[in-house]
Every structure is written in structure tokens, then in C-alpha cells.
Amino acid sequence: MPEQNRITEPWGERTPYGPGDQWPTRVDLHLAEGIDPGEVERWVPSASLLHSNGDAMDIAVLDGRIAGVRGRAEDRVNRGRLGPKDLFGWQANHAEDRLRHPLVRRGGRLVETTWDEALDLVAARTRTTLDEHGPGAIGFYTSGQLFLEEYYTMAVLARGGIGTAHLDGNTRLCTATASEALKETFGCDGQPGSYDDVDHADVIALFGHNVAETQDVLWSRMLDRLAGPRPPALVCVDPRRTPVAAAATVHLAPRPGTNLMLMNGLLREIVDRGWVDEDYVARATVGYDELTQELGRVTVTEAAEVCDVPESDLREAARLLGTADRLLSTVLQGFYQSHQATAASVQVNNLHLLRGMIGRPGCGVLQMNGQPTAENTRETGANGDLPGFRNWANDAHVQELAELWHVDPSVIPHHGPPTHAMQILRYVEEGSIRFLHVSATNPAVSLPELARVRDVLTREGLFLVVQDLFLTETAELADVVLPAATWGEKTGTFTNADRTVHLSEKAVDPPGEARADLDILLDYARRLDLRDRDGGPLIKWHDAESAFEAWKECSRGRLCDYSGMTYARLRDGGVQWPCTSDAPDGTDRLYVHADFAARPDACESYGRDLETGAPVEVVEYRSLNPDGKAMLKAARFRPPPEQPTPEHPFHLVTGRTIYHFHTRTKTGRVPELQAAAPEVWVEASAEDAADQGWREGDLLQVSTSRGRVQARLRISGIRPGVVFLPFHYGYWDVDDAREADRARAANELTPTTWDPASKQPLFKAGAAAVVRIEEES
Amino acid sequence: MTKLDLVLRQVHQSETELGRRLAALVDRHRSDADAVHVGQLLGGWTARHVRRIAETAEGLELGPADGLADAPAGELARPGPDSGTALLADLRRVHLAAAGASVDWVVLGQAAQAARDEGLLALVQECHPETLRTQRWALARIKESAPQLITVS
Questions:
Q1: Which H helix or E strand runs over A716?
Q2: How many whole angstroms separate alpha carbon A438 and alpha carbon A636?
Q3: pTM
Q4: Chain A nearest CA to B1, separation (Å)
Q5: Residue A756: which of B32, B38, B148 has the nearest Cβ?
Q6: Is the CB of A612 less than 8 angstroms away from the CB of B133?
Q7: Closest chain B residue to A755 measured between Cα atoms?
Q8: Taking all residues of chain A, what is their mean pLDDT, rounded to a whole number?
Q9: Chain A: residue nearest B44 by CA?
């Protein structure tokens, strides 16, 4: 059989199946040209590190090099399938320009040095900063692409050793609202649903979630249901006509910034029509009266007007959601990166509580992640929370950590919420953070308002350490660059968006002197000589497996309980937490008996004011939710602050393509993926193109009050009045691109603003001007 | 003028004061995205309160507050030196102004109940929770910001 072109056919061949059946197996394989599967020396278990789906695979090894990948047929997540990024992405490991030696800045230039010199310098600078300015002068900005063991080590190092509150991940950009929305409703982070719910659902609703490009194997699963007997109905909320929208039974394309109004309209109709499971609501929730009171303020007709969607479509979507027998909902960046992000995402949780659709096959909420290991930053406390979903405002939780780490509780900063990434950047900007460690992320391209970010990262007096695979746009600004190993070159675990934990083992050696992030962090901690209360080393583990064992103890008894897992067990395939001696094979769905982790003494968070972000105090939480039920939280729509004006008449939204990840650090170095999407483009509707006289391929300039970007036009099914830019493109592979007239990073344009509750930056909240500067030739 | 009118006048004045404090916060801390964006949101709430009080107490001719926009406008800017301690001072002013307004709402609410004035009671129920939320936000920002601003030299 000829090999299918998986660039042009990213979702592969259909394997149709019906409701309640097991998803059929389809094993995808891609090996380097000329290599036959029989020649492969070893197959090493791993999973995808290029999106959040956690597709399990084996890495093919030949002559000490990675020679390809094959999907794992038996794994619950993908049953053998792999998407284009995974089939081809491994080639990035072999890129010629991988960092092979540590670099230090001398006389303004980065030059090669030894590990000893580089790490001694980093440790000495940490120590003097600590001595002169205190722990609050030190910050860590990490990733959604390291492994669990690395995040946990970093969390202990930063929160229990150095004693700084300033540790967050770039997961702030992708998954902070998922976490916050779950905490607001269920008192604790933790994905209620399971990917298996796709097999059972009769209605699947995707809220701002272009799953076809963000998690293409999960979309294959949905396509296989759609191609099989008794397919589910699809409800899609997205301003773009995505592949999901094209397949949807009802597609709602609301005006940007109106998601909360849309959700309130849908819930209003569901309440009015009597589609509420009153028994479940009475038994399992608090807040119903407050929610219905708020919903009473707006009619479905008004909601349809504000969102500018047909009222009949809105009612039809509500009917599908309101009468489904098994409803699965997913939520992603269309909600998380938009105005009133947490408030809107919480309404999806409310939908499921109102309908009593939690914890049964086909009845699930999936508040999604963007990045492959985002879930682990959340669990381990590398994301602006305390490890093990512990509550910073609960002294007993802090005491547990102090006992686990053998430190005084006062060492662990808990006088306020751990600092979020945008505030860390702010402290650098103000000059109070003087030492910043950045690992496996590229803020010089991925954060909003890049002109400001570049100023902040090059600020006089800041010592910047960057730990990465390549000399990224951020690494170029660093004082010390530490070359890291990556997927396939180091061992560790990570967890996907439905709580499935995979072990990814070392298959080959990293290039040059590059080292595993875990080894770099352990060495750094040793050189800092971090000690516990008894004078022993603070960090008592020495490799990935011993770090995993330490994490298991930290997670024991919490919702994200790993205590029943071992590396040996994970070698057989993915396991969903909680996994304990009582549930040794893991747990497919949370809250089966409405048994939420929301009791005041157990919950991860007392919640926040959804509009101002102010933390709710414990006394208020105890009176609102003494029995630890799920919380129905109402929120009022407010118009977004940055509205289109005559000078900036378009809504600007940014997003991703299936062929790239993050800032293309890896995928831009993979020939097939790079060729599939070689340069930035801008999408506009056919209506707007006709109005403006633009044609496909014209060079347009998109500008906001913050900057401008040039990109070629693709006419697409996007909502009129909205333009779209992919956020992947930076400057490492172009010359002199910082010249303003050649800027291509979407974040030159995006605003410094975030959701007050989740602190997630709002990449879909800008107003832009668009003009043609060159016709297509 | 009745005593109830005096209370209405008082709450009109204290909400106007709160609006001015919020506008000052936004204006003086243009590099602090949270202060600007939440400050604008809360300023919008306060402006609406002032308007609603004036509508409710038509006979008193309270009118709109001088120079109080619906939402204080303005773009973000880069920080100046030592903006931190000034931020704490301005948040403190917002918190105290909100506390004062909150007390006035309590007085008005109690009086409205005793007088069985349902229109006034509805006004209190609409506005007072938002004033309390403003107060909580200011205190929360103070709690979050103080350690960094004061202990990191």
C-alpha cells in the first residue's frame, strides 16, 4: 500500500466505529528514507512532546540515532495513530545548529565555555543576588515541554530552597484558564473527563477548540465516530470556519470578546426549557439561585444580537446541548485567550452540572491544554500554584510540604498567590527581579507586546539564564546559555490533557555536551548547596526515577495521586491518575459519585472574583460551600475594552497551525513541516477581501498601537471583520528581520492584558488596521 | 431635605470620591496592566453607581460626577522609577474610599429597609456588592504587591 501523504492528509485514513465500541487500532509509522522496520535495532517507549494529546509511540533507534517513530497500538490515547508533527518532528533532534556547549556572554558576545564555569557562574550569581536582595529578586520562567520530574525538582528548588514565589510556566499562555476554571467550579484542578468519552457521546461541543489542528489524533477519533453508525452531533463555537466548524451540526461564529454572553444565552435557554437535571443540581451543587438570577438578566434574543449569531442557531445549539443523553464538551484557546476567559470557561462547567453530565461514559468536560506537559507544571507547582494541587492560603497544606521537604514552613512563600508569569515580567521591568532563569521556552517571541518584552529581557542589571536546545531569540539575549537534551535523549514522565501519564525513555545520547534538564537542575542545586532543616541536601534524588518516587510522595492523598504508579508499570502504556493502591490501573473519570475535592480543608483554591481576580477568603468559602459541592458560578458579560475603531477596524486573533509548535524551535527545522507552512500569513474573509479589493497572496500590513507585521493574505472562512495571524513565526531563521517593516511575529501586535482570574494573556483581544502594501505578483 | 436625602447625598459623594481615586490609580500607573485594566472596569462600575443614585434621587439634582468618565481611558505605558510605593499608596486610597462608600451603602440599605422603600433597596442591592468587590480587589493587590515592593531592595 502506498504511504499516504500525511502533510496533505494530516488525519490519515478513517477507521469508523459506533457508540460504545472501542476505537479501532491504526498504527502509523514513519522511518527515515531507505530504512526498513526490520532493520531497527531498538524501539524505545515515549509519547508526543509536540502537542497536549499524549500520543504514545516507540522511537526507532538505529546506529545510535533516532531513525523514526511508530504509534503504540495498545495505548489508550491514540491506539497507534500519530499526527504529522510526530511522524516528522523527531528530525529536529538532529538539526545541525543544536546547542552543544554552554555559552557565556563575554564582551557582549556569547562564547563557548565549560559546564563547570557556566554553572559556577549561575550559582554564584544566584547566591549573591539572594544575599544582596533576597529571594524575591530571583525568578524562574519555565515551560510546557519539560518532564514532570524536572518541574517538581524546579518547584522544590525555587519554593523550598531559594524561597521565591516567582516560578511560573509558559503554560500561563495556554492552560492557566483551564486550571482556574476547574478550580472555580470543582475547588481543585483536575480534568473531570476522559478521551474515552468521545466513544460514547451523542453530542460533542467544542468551545473555541480547533481540535483538528491542536490535537489532530483526537480529531481523528471524532472523525471516526462521525464516519461510523449513529454519529454524534457536533456543536462548534469558533469565529473561523475550521475543519471542526465545517463538520459541525451547528457552527456559531460569535463576535470576538462575546463568549460569556454566548454561554449565558445558551444556559438561559436550557434553564427556560426545563432541560436541567434538578436532582443532580440539588445533590451536587451550590449556587443555582445566583446563576439563574444572573441568567435572567439577558434573553436569548439579546445574546444572539450581542454575539451577532443567528438566534435560531443559538437556540438549536442549546437544544442539542440541552437534550443530549451523553454530552462531551471541550474548551481551548478561543475561550482561554479571549475577554472574560475564566468566566466563559466556567459556564461550560456549569452546563455539565446543570445537565448532570459529569463522571459517566460520554459525559465529560475536557478543559484542554495547549502544550504537551502543561498538565505537569500545574500538578508540580511549577505554574503559579503549590505542588500537589495544594492551597497556598491553607496553612495545613503548606505545613505538609514543609514536612515533606524537611524545611521550615516560613521558607515556602505563601503570603499571597504564587507570582504569575506576566507579573514576573513586570518585576523584571521594574528592576526588582535581577536574576531570571528561563527554561525550554521562548518569551522573546511568545509573550504579548514583543517590543516591551525585548526591552525587559535586555534590561540593565538583569542576569538572564536560558536553558534550551537551540539559540532561540531569547537565548540570544542571555548572559548564560545552557544546552539541554530533549525528548528521546532523556528519561521522564509527562501527562496529557486527560490525565494519562506516559513514560518517555532515553533512546539516544544528546548532541555534544548537552545535558538533561533534570541533570542541569540537580547540578545547579548542588552548587547552590541548598540544605534542608537537618543540614542534609534539600533535593534528595539523583535521577528521573528517584525524582518520580519523590513526586509520588508529594502527590499521595491529593487528587493528582501518582502513588500507585511505577516506571515499570508505565512501560506497558499510559495510566490515568489518580492511581493508588486502591486504583492500581488508574481512574478514567473523576467525580463519578459527585465526590469533589472541594471541601474547605481539601480544596486547592478558595476561588477568585471572576471579574477582578481578587482571591476569595477562606471564611467566605466555608460559608458558600461547607460540604465541598461543585460550585455554579455566575458572571455578567461586559463588552471587551479594546474595540475596533475607525483607525483599527478589525478584530485581531492569533492562533496555531497543525504543522508547527510554539515558536517553531523544533518544527521549523523539520523539512516536511517547514515546507508545509514556511512563512507567516494573514487570514481574512472573502467579504472583507472584496470590500478592500484584496486578492489571495497580496502582501498586507497588520498594525495595532503596539506594532506591525507583514504577511501574505489567505482568504478563508473567518468571520467578516476578524483577521487571524499564526503566532509561530519569529526571527531565528531570517536575517535582519527586526527591521520594523519586515516584522513577522504576531506578538508584535498583541496587547499586555490578561484575564483577571486566570492571569492568562488575551491574545485574541486586539483591534488592528490592515492595509495592502504589495499586490500578489 | 430629609435625613434619607442626606444619606443619598453622602453615598453619591463617596462613590464619586471612589471614582476619582480609581481614575487617579489608572492615570498614575499606566505601566501596571492590572491596575489599568481592572481599574478601568471598576471605574465603570462606580460611574454607573453615581448615575443610578442621581436617577433614583431625581429631586436632589445630584447630576453626574464632575469629570468622571464611564471608564477612565488610557493606553499602557512603560514604568517610571519607584512606581511601586506610589502604587501601594494609590491602592490604599482606593481601598479606603471603597470602605467609606461601603459604609454609606450599609446606612442607606438599613434606612431603606426601615422605610420600606423598595426602589432604594434595589439600588443598594445593585451597587453595594460591586463596591465591596472593589474594596476587596484593592486590598488583594496590596497584599500581593507589598512583599515585593518592600522587602526586595
A1: strand A707-716
A2: 37
A3: 0.96
A4: 35
A5: B38
A6: yes
A7: B34
A8: 96
A9: A638
Mean pLDDT over residues A290-317, rounded? 98
pLDDT score of A601:
97
Q: Among all chains, which residue has been given the C-alpha cell 437535571?
A: A277
Cell 541536601 locates to A537
User: What amino acid occupies position A560?
Assistant: C
Q: How far is B138 from chain A (nearest CA, A)?
A: 8
For residue A416, the distance in angstroms to the closest alpha carbon of chain B comes to 6
What pLDDT is attached to residue A1?
Answer: 41
Which residue in B38, B149, B152 is closest to A612 by CB distance? Answer: B38
Asked if the interface predicted TM-score (ipTM) of this complex is over 0.90, the answer is yes
Q: Is the CB of A752 less than 8 angstroms away from the CB of B76? A: yes
Q: What is the DSSP string of A308-372?
A: T--HHHHHHHHHHHHH-SSEEEEE-HHHHTSTTHHHHHHHHHHHHHHTT-SSBTTBEEEE--SST
Mean pLDDT of A286-293: 98
Percent of chain A with pLDDT over 90: 96
Which residues have C-beta within 8 Å of that of residue A58, sequence separation ≥ 6? A43, A44, A45, A46, A69, A70, A72
Beta carbons within 8 Å of A96's beta carbon, 6+ residues apart:
none
The one-letter amino acid code at A167 reads L
Q: How far apart are CA A589 and CA A563, in angstroms?
A: 18
Cβ–Cβ pairs < 8 A, chains A and B: 79
State whether B34 and A136 contact (CB < 8 Å). no
Please check whether residue A465 is in contact with residue A483, taking contact to mean a CB–CB distance below 8 angstroms: no
- Asked if residue A177 lies in contact with residue A546, where contact means CB atoms within 8 angstroms, the answer is no
B20 sits in the region (left: phi over 0; alpha: psi -120 to 50; else beta) called alpha
From chain A, the residues in CB contact with B84 under 8 A are: 430, 432
A422 neighbourhood in chain B, CB within 8 Å = 33
B139: chain A residues, CB-CB within 8 Å: 614
With an 8 Å Cβ cutoff, are A432 and B139 in contact? no
3-state secondary structure A263-305: HHHHHHHHHHCCCCCHHHHHHHEECHHHHHHHHCCCCHHHHHH
Mean pLDDT of the region A330-345? 97
What is the structure's pLDDT at A54? Answer: 97
Instruction: Nearest chain B residue to A610 by CA: give it.
Output: B133
Blockwise average pLDDT, block size 10, chain B, 153 residues: 90 96 93 93 96 86 60 61 81 98 98 94 97 98 93 82
Question: Quick check: B31 contacting A, CB < 8 Å?
Answer: yes
Query: Which of A413, A415, A609 has the CB atom closest to B137's CB atom?
Result: A609
pLDDT band at A384; cut points 50, 70, 90: confident
Each residue's pLDDT tens digit, A45-92: 999 999 999 999 999 999 999 999 999 999 999 999 999 999 999 999
Best residue in B29, B30, B37, B127 to probe A by mutation, most A CBs within 10 Å? B37
Distance (Å, whole) CA A718 – CA A721:
9
Q: What is the pLDDT of residues A557-591, one digit of tens each?
A: 999 999 999 999 999 999 999 999 999 999 999 99
pLDDT of residue A535: 96
- A614 vs B83: CB contact, 8 Å cut-off? no
